[in-house]
Amino acid sequence: MEQFEKGSVHFEGVVKKYGSVTALKKLDLAIDPGQLVTLLGPSGCGKTTTLRLIAGLESATNGKIIIGGEDVTHLSATYRKVSMVFQSYALFPHMSVAENVAYGLTVQSMPKRQAMEKAEQGLEMVGLAGFGSRLPSELSGGQQQRVAVARAVVLEPEVLLLDEPLSNLDAKLRRHVREKIRQIQQELKLTAVYVTHDQEEAMAVSDRIIVMKNSEIAQEGTPHDLYEQPNSAFIADFIGDSNLIDCDIVSSNDDGTNIQLGDKQLRIASQTELSGRAKAVLRPHHVSLRPANRDAAFIGEVSYAAYLGNEIQYSVQSDLGELFVIAQATAQPISVGQSVGIDMPTDKMRLVPMD
C-alpha cells in the first residue's frame, strides 16, 4: 500500500460535475508536506473548485482525495484537518480580535482561558500582539486579513488553504501581507494551498505553481521553470509578459534549431521536437532597441512609450507584429514615432506550439 506523509495532499482521478457541466476534469496531483503550492489560472479554470474539494466544501463526483494518508473523499469539512482563509476575512464583527482568533478552538471544546492564550500567541505570530481587545472594525484591511490567518493557523491544521486572500487589499499592502503569510508558512513548515489569479503574487510566494486552464492542469513547476520553460503559448503569455511571434521551424538537430522569423532565418541553441508553424517566445526585457540602421536585424516604429519610474515600456510596430519592450529608465528615452532597430537575442528565445 502506498505511504503518504502527514500534511500531504493527493488527488487521484478526481472529477467534479454540476449536472451536465464539468467543473473539474480527471485531476491527478500531489502536494508534498511543507510546500506552498499555488493554484493559478483565469476565472472558471477550476482552481477554486479544487481548493473547495480539499476543504470538504464540495464533494467529488469521481476519484479519491487523500490528506496525510487518510482518504477524506467522503469526509465532511468538520472532520478534515484543514483550515481555510477566505477572501472576505469572515470575521465576527461583534467579537474582539482575540475572540475571533480563539473561535475555532472554543468550538473544539478547548477551555476558554487556554483558547485565549493560544489566540494571543497567534496574534503575536502575525505581528498583531496587543491588538486582541480591539474589534475588527478598528483594524485596517491588511490587519483584518492577518487576523484571519492567525485564526486558521492556531487550529494547527495539516493543510492551510488560502482562497484569494489578498484580492481586497491595495498593491503595497498585498506585498506586505503576502510576505507575512509566506514567513509564517515557512516557520511552521505548513503545507499550504493558495488560490489566486495574480501571477506576480503566485511567483512571489510559491514553492510550486499549478496553472489551470479549462478545468485541468495546463502546466506545473517552480516559478522559475514556468517562466523560463513554458510548454505553450498560453503559459508563456499568462506567466509574466511575453512577445509571441509566429515563426516556421526549418530544421532541428542536436546542435540547435533553425527558424524562419519574418524574412530572416535565425538559429536557436536548443533542439525542439516541434515542426512546422510555431511561436517564438521572447520576454519584453530581453528585447532591446537602438537607432535604426542597416545592421539591425529588424526595424520597427515606436507607437507607445510609458515612463514608470524604474523602467520605460514601449510598444513597437514591426513586420513581426506589435512587440512589447521594457527598457531600464537609465536608457535614453525613445520618442513615439521614432524608427528603431530591434535586437532579439536567440539564446533567450523559447519555442512553443501554436495554440
| Proportion of helical residues | 10-25%
- Alpha plus pi helix count: 8
Largest sheet strand order: 6-7-8-3-9-10
CA distance, first residue to last residue: 40 Å
Description:
With 355 residues, the protein is of the alpha+beta class. The chain has helices at residues 47-55, 97-107, 112-125, 141-153, 171-188, 199-205, 223-228, 233-238; strands at residues 9-18, 21-31, 36-40, 62-67, 70-71, 82-85, 159-163, 191-196, 208-213, 216-221, 243-253, 256-261, 264-268, 276-282, 288-291, 298-307, 311-318, 321-328, 339-343, 350-353. The model has no long low-confidence stretch (mean pLDDT 91). The protein is built from eight helices and 20 strands.
Comma- or semicolon-separated keywords:
about 350 residues, five-stranded antiparallel β-sheet, alpha+beta
Protein topology:
Blueprint: E1 9-18, E2 21-31, E3 36-40, H1 47-55, E4 62-67, E5 70-71, E6 82-85, H2 97-107, H3 112-125, H4 141-153, E7 159-163, H5 171-188, E8 191-196, H6 199-205, E9 208-213, E10 216-221, H7 223-228, H8 233-238, E11 243-253, E12 256-261, E13 264-268, E14 276-282, E15 288-291, E16 298-307, E17 311-318, E18 321-328, E19 339-343, E20 350-353
Parallel strand pairs: 3-8, 3-9, 6-7, 7-8
Antiparallel strand pairs: 1-2, 1-4, 4-5, 9-10, 11-12, 11-14, 12-13, 14-20, 15-19, 16-17, 16-19, 17-18
